[in-house]
## 1
Amino acid sequence: MVRWEGRESCALLLGRGQQRVLKRFAVFLSVFQSVLFLAHFLLFETLLYAWRQRFDATLLGIMLAVLSVSFLGASLLAFRYFNAFVRVFYKIAAVWLGIFNYLFMAACVWWLLFGALYLIGINVSRSELAAALFGLAIATALYGFANAGWIRVKHIGVELPALPESWRGRTIALVSDLHLGHVRNSGFTRRIVRKIAREKPAIVLMAGDLFDGTAVNAEKAAAPLAELHSPFGSYFAEGNHEEFSSPAAFLAAISKTGVRVLDNEIVNVEGLQLIGVPYRHATHAGHFRSVLQKLTIDRTRASILVTHAPDHPQVADEAGISLQVSGHTHRGQFFPYTWITARIYRQFVYGLTRVGGLQVYTSCGAGTWGPPLRVGSRPEIVLIHLK
């Protein structure tokens, strides 16, 4: 009887926990959709006021109302289904969200400029001002889409203390944040693999978010990774998007290609200590610290930590690690989020920096999340030349 009551209590607690999670998720979705709807309403009012005679208000209102819910609707479908219809719907919704970002900014600027000019007594054509601002917005979005598809190869030199002589002059390829799913898939993976192969790195490191976390044929999307043939292999540390649901299928697909998935472990690669900590074990400083302590890192030898986010570099420094490679930030991906992300991550938002004895390289990633555009950031594969 006591045993049964204990089980009943556990089930009740789990049920309440799930209810709290679902409630928070529902609140988040409601707030997110409300913001999108209000932003689309502002665009609607701006277009009508600027070009009153050129739009059918009813038709425009219906069109913008539908578009305002398209990304949320497509995202919810994308987490459950992976088929041609959902892929096309998601791509259209994601592209629209990217364009809308700059149309909304243009609408805000339009009201500010028009209002300021009106107050100081300068007459300006509403439609001409709108045409200039909305034209600039669309041009910016188009640039962003083109920029997101142009993957650069970036070369940096890193000097590591106590680096084995055999590693001096060798090159590490770092890639992160492919976000394979409904926008990018096996074709994108193949492009990345070919670019890496041309550089002939000694080892390949993947710092998480290979997948977008949505429904996907994971084995097919990851399959081109089997064509990576670097002398010292390829290694992957799990990102937050692999953890949106159970990461098992994603990690199994990666392992099947011959890429080694690092899960709180240290690997000796010809005298170089290679450490991998997945995102879920590196988000909280205390837990991250305990994970690194258990790995018994040799402070007298060079070490490289692969972990998805540059959240707690001071913890890696305390552990005596020489170099940390991460992704996650996308460098904000596109303005104005580039500005916001820089305020959150500061010096660790992008590029090579240092804290104490630790060097940190944060990549802005190769793919995109959501809108497939980049403004203020560039997709990259990083070649780290060891000295």
## 2
Amino acid sequence: MARITIKQIAEEAGVSMTTVSNVLNKKTHRVSEEKIQLIEEIIEKHHYIPNMNARSLVNSSSKLIGLLYYSKENDFIFSDPFTSELLAGIEKESKRNGYFVLVHNVTSINDILTLQKNWNFDGFIVVGVSTESFIEIDNIIKKPVVYIDTYLFEHDQKIMEKKRQCSFVNTNDYQASETAVEFLIECSHKKIGFLSFDFEPSIPSVIQQRHLAYKEGLEKHHIPYREEFIFGEHEFDKIQNALNQMTALLVTSDHLAAKFVKYLKNRNSYSVETLSIIGFDDVSFSELMDPGLTTIRLEPSEKGRIAFKELRKLILGELTKSQQIKMDGKLIVRQSVITISQKF
């Protein structure tokens, strides 16, 4: 069966080809709701799929967004719950606005150069750029871009404030960690450990901000900061050996917290009565853990949705300067944290 055309859709709907084109491109402010519904029904009936190449030539827009995950590893783990929920938020909002998303794991500058050479992108959303690599990466991206969870050195921040084609969407990581520490202290915990992925305390990053708030939160309440209570993602055995010295553990992601709880349970070493645990993210499985994980909700799906909306504003020229959006975390109390008084 021959593929239906915009002209045939217009004739069937009794409207102009321009009106059909406007509905396809979501430019419906001058089209009645009745006509929109009729045209969309005809499109669905005939399974019409727009020719994106043709639309790109006419509109100088590809409707294609590049979602770049920057990592040092060749195989980025998209199964991480935070990553998958972030991607879901971006994909849902982009689809609603008629855009397509190309997801790519980037390990070098050459990856970005190759992508821009071979694909016509309207813009990019970039996740995971290191502070040290940021300026070099930003200089080679030639389209509007939104960076997610990206921290900069102060001098780089001043440079970016003057740019018009980029925005930043970050969690307020200091506030989120501060909230977690305050809650543990309210529950009478004073011997609090810190478990995270690898980070450098002197370089701005998500983990660096959470560690800083942890350290300053303890100092605020006159609780000693102890280097021996700082653990990396590969030091589960070290934490197990220190369980009798701590009453609580702040873990910088729910995924990491779940892995650690499983590690202890496999060794019959876990009990909420001996170790309270608080995480970050509130991904879908957090409330299903046993016990349910107390965590700081960071809304990864909402973060993705906001990032796309900011990018679309940049693409349409609706933003005149770089934007900085910070999303506060929200404490979600479940059963993995108890007060000291409950233990005796």
## 3
Amino acid sequence: MADFIIHTDGGARGNPGPAGAGVVVADGKGMVLKRLSKFLGTQTNNWAEYEALIYALQELKKIVPENNRAKTVVEIKMDSELVVRQLNGEYQVKDEPLQLQYMKVHNIQVKDFPWLSFTHVPREENAGADELANKAMDGAGNQ
């Protein structure tokens, strides 16, 4: 069982266009600990999906003490099949800006949270993160 379950979503209106990230951090039993949104400027949809994940992992570092991170099990749920497949090694990351985003996630995984898993979920199972990403795109900012 995971210590944390994190739902992330990133999106861009226009692709590229105004972009936002949404994050819902829950404990292993599903109790929500944080709901976050962040405006990302003008970006592509896939870049925003990665940035939402990076934002979530940075926030998780604030919750989990450094000496506990190496044994913390984290399940990441995203509705971006492309990003999940890239993170799971099923697809190559060919786009250079996405390669940089991928490396940021990889570095956090190596340094802080080696027990990350990435799961694709249908959009309706990611509604909380999707709503927060849309709020960010609308300019509502952090919650």
